[in-house]
DNA sequence: TACCGCTTGTGAACGCATGCACAAAGTCGG
DNA sequence: CCGACTTTGTGCATGCGTTCACAAGCGGTA
């Protein structure tokens, strides 16, 4: 939509220019939360809710109310004191800041277990991320449609990514293939990569990589179990009976 | 150096007690990285590498060398100055800190696109996370084995989780079902939950939740694309030629 | 219009995490 | 046995992110 990102302050509206400058200053952590607020707000809008206070929204998003207000303040002052926020207004401003005013075409590479799930998932197109290309090295898969999109051979990746203006590449290949797939995506001009393979990817500075590592997530959970078990042990043994139920006594 | 506050020394060995006390102090961010180091180190061990310096390991893990050393220092001093770290030793210490010395049984709830992929994935059991139970509400799925494990009906979740000592529950149901599934997992004694459904789960304090939200990941990538585009525009037009290549000029 | 109560937006303080820089501590060659 | 070289472990400064607390601002009410 709009935002023909023209030049500096001469042709853009003051509001747009202000947004651009602000975008640079938004903390990474706040960006992630803004995406969550957006989802919650979208849900509210669908339910017919038109206004919301920082307290309500923060509850629904599972964060501290002050943090929520600060996060929203990064994108501008669109609330009304004494009242709250207009849901629609907030949605459109967050969408603008997150760059969701245009679609981002997605390519999935590696159509195995995970690739199939991603290709079949209906949740992305509706949120502005249409999956427009699938790639695999396996000749048996090439040509077969998955989730409505036919699989192409990995060797066609450059041509097809350029043609379909892919802006996000998703890597769902086995670990050994990930770096080479990544390199090919990068040389096809893809600047955003979401990596499911448990390997550290090397990319140029102008490419943004985010990784999803399920084994790491589970290990973090495991750490917390262990920590909790230790704490419980300390309380019951170390404090020698002073601690009742699970409460930690010492500060 | 070693942190007081411990009285646990009476029943545990000093080394164990020291670990337990340290575990409490490890920053969350460092825990996530330790899991990455562990994966890299395991790969090195398999390749026959026996020793590694902080510089090498940090390269392989994609982090700053000083940060890596600090992370490792949280779990103790197991390096040799002038030489580096023994791979095996480091692996075993990280595993101990992360609580990986025992297996953590995993249950997957919601055997749809994503649930199938998870159940079929061979990478978890090898890392100490055997998938031991699958649940779905769909009668057509119940009884059918996926990845070698038969699917059970969701109503059996409490009994089976207790019986198989499930410690991690993975939620891969549609969003509306997620909270109720979560509640059932919690009442079955599961204290760790990995949630793929795009909803904020409410849980008691003694339960740890981690979420994987792919739409949020993509939106973060989208934000960076937009920011980059804006910067490019500012530099080429706003600064009126003063900025060459991608460098940001104004602070 | 003037007041009241409510909610936002933000300055300021705090706490956590990162990265630097270097002393301490070890190896290895001679 | 010594001295040069290498690499760890960490004190310290810096920057980022979170939280508190409250003035400013707005709608409603009399
Ligand atoms: N399935 C899961 O639940 C899961 C969980 C965690 C991590 N992962 C990771 O995600 C990745 C994919 O997992 P999966 O279970 O789907 O694996 P999979 O083996 O089922 O699928 C991998 C696919 O990638 C294709 N492929 C291999 N080399 C390729 C290349 N060079 N170019 C293009 N395609 C290529 C294969 O033909 C295959 O279709 C792996 O790295 C895995 O570690 C998967
Ligand atoms: N598939 C993906 O790639 C993907 C990507 C991002 C997010 N997600 C999220 O992951 C979740 C699962 O996605 P999916 O594509 O596998 O969905 P899906 O519809 O294919 O599968 C959902 C499964 O959950 C089962 N189910 C429904 N209610 C249940 C209940 N109360 N108890 C137990 N099982 C129940 C259904 O029978 C079905 O088998 C969704 O929340 C989705 O938003 C999926």
Instruction: Say how many strands of chain A there are.
Output: 10
CATH class of the largest domain in chain A: Alpha Beta
- What characterizes the major β-sheet of chain A? 7 strands, mixed
Our estimate of the beta-strand percent of chain A is 15-25%
Tell me, rounded to a whole number, the average pLDDT of chain A.
87
* Individual helix count of chain A: 9
Compute the number of structural domains of chain A.
3
**Low-pLDDT regions of chain A:** 1-14, 238-251
Look up the CATH topology of the largest domain in chain A.
Answer: Rossmann fold
Name the hetero compounds present: nicotinamide-adenine-dinucleotide
- Element order, helices and strands of chain A? HHEHHEEHEHEEEHEHEEH
Chain pair sharing the greatest interface: A-B, 79 and 76 residues
Shape of chain A: globular
Q: What is the oligomer described by this structure? A: homodimer
C-alpha Rg of chain A, in Å?
Answer: 23 Å
CATH architecture of the largest domain in chain A: 3-Layer(aba) Sandwich
State the share of residues found in helices of chain A, binned by percent.
40-55%
DNA-binding region (chains A, B): 36-75
Subunit structure (chains A, B): Homodimer.
Pfam families (chains A, B): CoA_binding (PF02629), Put_DNA-bind_N (PF06971)
Family (chains A, B): Belongs to the transcriptional regulatory Rex family.
């Amino acid at each position: 939509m709009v935002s023909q990102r023209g030049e500096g302050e001469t042709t853009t509206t003051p509001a747009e220019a202000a947004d651009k400058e602000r975008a640079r200053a938004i903390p990474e952590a706040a960006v992630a939360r803004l995406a969550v607020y957006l989802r919650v707000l979208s849900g509210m809008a669908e339910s017919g809710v038109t206004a919301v206070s920082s307290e309500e929204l923060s509850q629904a998003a599972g964060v501290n109310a002050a943090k929520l207000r600060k996060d929203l303040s990064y994108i501008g002052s669109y609330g009304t004191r004494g009242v709250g926020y207009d849901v629609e207004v907030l949605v459109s401003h967050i969408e603008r800041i997150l760059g969701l005013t245009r679609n981002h075409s997605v390519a999935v590479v590696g159509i195995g277990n995970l690739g199939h799930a991603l290709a079949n998932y209906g949740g992305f197109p509706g949120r502005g991320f249409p999956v427009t290309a699938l790639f695999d090295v396996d000749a048996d898969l090439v040509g077969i449609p998955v989730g409505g999109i036919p699989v192409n051979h990995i060797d066609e990746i450059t041509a097809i990514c350029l043609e379909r203006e892919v802006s996000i590449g998703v890597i769902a290949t086995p670990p050994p293939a990930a770096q080479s797939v990544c390199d090919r995506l990068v040389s096809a001009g893809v600047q955003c990569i979401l990596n499911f393979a448990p390997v550290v990817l090397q990319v140029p500075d102008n490419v943004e990589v985010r990784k999803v590592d399920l084994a790491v997530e589970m290990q973090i959970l495991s750490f917390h179990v262990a920590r909790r078990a230790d704490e419980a042990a300390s309380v019951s043994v170390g404090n020698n009976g002073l601690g009742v139920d699970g409460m930690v006594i010492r500060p």
